Write a sequence for this structure.
């Protein structure tokens, strides 16, 4: 058989379904550490919570602390792998495998060549804001269109290695799309729990095509996640939400790849959207590990941006000084981050503090405008990703970000993930009543509704002339 066509499906002897909920997941070479009481163990229960205090677990590898990992050597190994056609090296995640938990065999790895995403400059936004070193790390360019793939390749690999037949997640859409794809590639079945009517069709359709059992539950995301946590105690399904620490290990590679793209010169700021807060936790963990290993000379500030209507972390920090979670009843058109009780809030508080980052919230109108601005750069993203640009502008105004600093916005999802939002925006249906005159005028600058014309040359030429008259360059003249 052609080597490049080697199947990602597991071997047929993988039939050892864990048949009881007490089964443990044992992993050599690294261990699980509780972020609350600090107790460490070689195994984790299926709900990935500490058996002593019920807090979340993280993965640590004591060998990293030793001098076995030389920063310059690592950089050169990772660079060399970019020219390799070996299966693992083609993945922008497994290319960095020295900082990931190692599977027992390479054959267990489930990969869709995730990662390897572009770092774009944003010339229009740089010009408008005066911040010349402004970049977007576009995780929406992953195989299923979101950053979730970088974590899913690792977690699906360990699910397959442990012999699971079923994997499951609660989701606002992207996790389910990603999980269903990786389960299909890994020869596993997938169970998706999503809030009925609250996720975009485009994400839902991905899960269907990849063959997931898709349950639309009459609740919100938080309700779906609560149910999943109960389910994993009762049924032999492997949980693939970001509570699963393997997910976060894979998502760390966003930061590794970003720093490599910046020739290992740390930016001053990395700005990321916050929903369930797994991604910010993963990026923060990566930055701290990179700093400890000497891969970078200092820490960038990691800031988290939330939608005003789903601002649990903002409130947790302001009202409870990060000591306990202040949950909210979440509501936002940026449905990917419509989350009121983020599971990884404590991990996020820790990395925000460790990197001296900020936490900011942005309005629905600010999100829509930022999304249109990213579209105008020829890039585009889904609404949840656009909170980063909206938040960046706020942080620039408050002086937290300075115009001579280097800033990276993490765009988490592809423009095509939420076409309804985009169409509603351009047709003027998003804020029919809620925008005031000034806001409406501001938004109108970015609206490009489709025009329906008679199929005549004259009609098209007239439309062209009209568009030319109202184009930004003719305004300026
Ligand atoms: N951006 C997008 C596009 C997302 O899909 C999500 C989360 C986030 C940002 C927030 O990341 O949860 O790690 O803080 N989506 C999850 C899902 C919840 O189910 O797809 P987070």
């Amino acid at each position: 058989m052609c080597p490049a066509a080697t199947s990602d499906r597991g071997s047929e002897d993988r039939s050892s379904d864990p048949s009881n909920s007490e089964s443990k997941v044992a992993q050599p070479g690294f261990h699980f550490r509780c972020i609350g009481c600090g107790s460490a163990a070689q195994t984790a229960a299926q709900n990935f919570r500490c058996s002593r205090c019920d807090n979340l677990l993280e993965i640590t590898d004591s060998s990293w602390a030793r001098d076995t990992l030389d920063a310059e050597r690592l950089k050169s190994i990772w660079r060399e792998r970019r020219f390799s056609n070996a299966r693992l090296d083609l993945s922008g995640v497994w290319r960095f495998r020295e900082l990931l938990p190692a599977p027992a065999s390479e054959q267990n790895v489930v990969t869709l060549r995730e990662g390897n995403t572009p770092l774009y400059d944003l010339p229009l936004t740089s010009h408008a804001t005066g911040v010349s070193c402004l970049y977007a790390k576009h995780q929406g360019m992953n195989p299923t269109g979101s950053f979730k793939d970088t974590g899913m390749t690792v977690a699906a690999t360990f699910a397959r290695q442990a012999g699971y037949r079923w994997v499951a997640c609660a989701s606002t859409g992207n996790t389910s799309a990603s999980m269903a794809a990786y389960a299909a590639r890994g020869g596993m079945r997938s169970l998706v729990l999503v809030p009925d009517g609250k996720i975009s069709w485009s994400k839902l359709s991905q899960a269907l095509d990849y063959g997931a059992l898709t349950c639309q539950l009459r609740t919100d995301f938080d309700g779906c996640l609560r149910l999943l946590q109960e389910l994993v105690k009762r049924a032999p399904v492997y949980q693939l939400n970001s509570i699963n620490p393997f997910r976060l290990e894979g998502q760390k590679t966003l930061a590794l790849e970003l720093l490599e793209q910046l020739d290992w010169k740390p930016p001053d700021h990395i700005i990321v959207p916050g929903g369930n807060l797994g991604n910010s936790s993963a990026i923060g963990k990566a930055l701290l590990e990179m700093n400890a290993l000497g891969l970078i000379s200092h820490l960038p500030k990691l800031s988290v941006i939330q939608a005003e209507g789903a601002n649990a972390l903002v409130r947790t920090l302001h009202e409870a000084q990060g000591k306990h979670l202040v949950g909210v009843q979440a509501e936002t058109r940026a449905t990917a981050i419509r989350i009121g009780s983020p599971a990884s809030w404590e991990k996020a508080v820790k990395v925000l503090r460790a990197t001296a980052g900020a936490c900011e919230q942005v309005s629905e109108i600010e999100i829509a405008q930022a999304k249109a601005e990213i579209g105008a750069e020829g890039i585009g993203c889904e609404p949840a990703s656009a909170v980063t640009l909206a938040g960046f502008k706020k942080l620039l105004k408050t002086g937290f970000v300075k115009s001579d600093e280097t800033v990276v916005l993490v765009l988490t999802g592809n423009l095509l993930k939420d076409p309804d939002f985009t169409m509603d925006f351009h047709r003027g249906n998003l804020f029919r009543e809620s925008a005031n005159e000034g806001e409406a005028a501001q938004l109108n600058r970015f609206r490009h509704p489709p025009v329906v014309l008679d199929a005549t040359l004259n009609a098209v030429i007239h439309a062209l002339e009209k568009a030319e008259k109202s184009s930004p360059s003719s305004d300026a003249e």
Remarks:
- The first strand starts at residue 25 and ends at 26.
- The pocket of F0G is lined by residues 146, 171-175, 242, 273-280, 336-337, 382, 384-385, 412-413 (CB under 6 Å).
- The chain has 17 helices and 15 strands.
